User: Fold this.
Amino acid sequence: MYLTFDVGTTSVKTALFDREGRPRAKSIRGYVLATPQADWVEADPEAYWAAVLSGFRETLQAAGVNPGEVRSICGSSQGETIVFLDARERPVRPAIVWLDNRARAQVEELKARLDPEEFYRHTGCTDIEPTWSLLKVLWVKAHEPESFARTSKILLLEDYIVYRLTGRSCSTPTLLHSSGFLDIQTRRYWDKTAGWAGVTGLLPEIVEVGSVAGRLKPELADELGLSRDTVVVKGAMDQTLSSIGAGNLAAGIVTETTGTAMAIGVTADSVEPILANHLPFQPHALSGKFLILPYAQTSAIIYKWFRDQFAQEEMRQAENPERAYEALNALAAGAPAGCDGLVLLPFFAGAYTPENDMYARGVWYGLTLKHGRAHFARGIQEGVGFMLRRILGLILEAGIPIREVRSMGGAARSDLWLQIKSDICDLPMVRMQEEETTGLGGALLAAVAVGDFPNLAEAARGMVRLGRRFQPEARHRKVYDRQYALYGRLYRALKPVFREFSSQAGGA
Assistant:
């Protein structure tokens, strides 16, 4: 069996999977982020570590299996969040979380030295932003020189957990790609960023995804009741492992997660076809391949916003807030395809891939007196579907085939939403049987590392299971083509308006 962890923004998910890919037990442990100033987001590294350990204990206890049967551990984390350790392996300061935007001055400093287009081609990141780890390190170097002077190791979050588990400091190209330190073309640290910042000697060894980092420390093995032969396997960024856990290992399969944000994963042999459209990309876990990772900042969170603001009666009648979505889906099903001309631009926090327009905002267009709550509920699902079609269209234009889209995230529980996406995109949508595909992706890597499968493709065949398949219905094609054309024209017409009025209001 295989123990997995996923260190998210506000919680750690742990799970135990068997060789058939079935979860034997799961756990979620939360922690609190600190926001000491505007644009600052920090966390105690020890809180991450404590959550992982307590999650392991709870998962192993709930599974009711002999802990000695656990052969390997593998995990994932959010990207960009960075931990500073001193020579005694203690945190120098709180971890700076990926959401932190304090390094705006460092963005301008780097842009003065490095063309953003060159940065994109070497990192896969579409712009120079304060999100990237490099900029956070530059901020610490400039504003906390005493902290930087005490730093002996700079680690990303999954690297930090693996370091605590094994004592080995190592990272992977998939996790490092959005740090800004790595040249993903060579899979080595980039002298124009890491070298210029003077941090190459502080960064971890680079190894491949799925390689064995080492054995679990004996004292930890004894504490958890695990075998001292348990190996710890290097994982990847959360979206990478989610794609692996959905079997996204070859051209033709696309994964999409509609949760708070929308994240899309596309396996490709080369990124040359997508460079003109500035789609973000990273090295794949598969040697020689890339994972194209377009994303949108807001998707299913808009549906949550609508539930919280305009579905109080459904919330009151439901056993819990999650059950209220079932009532909303039934309401949305009562509106016709195309919502009688109502269309949503779902840019509630800016438009990301491919527009990269932080000034864009959400817009409802086409309102008349005949529109009601059912139209709005369905309109949100259709608006997110149009956003997905826009991104998938760029993939197809680049000559990358799409045979089917495998869907994850909370929205994948909705039959209606999956059918709407299938109709809008004119592609099959497939629900995964296992919702927690990030953990399952870690289990696949863990299984291959100990020889239970010869490679990831065979592991996916043995452990990944598909659920219901939704085929596009031709009867809705005409109305959705018309609404999608309107969606595109609305954004193009409003783009200068977004910028003008956002500027007058004091920025995005």
About this structure: The chain has three domains: 2-239, 247-297+400-474, 300-392+475-504.
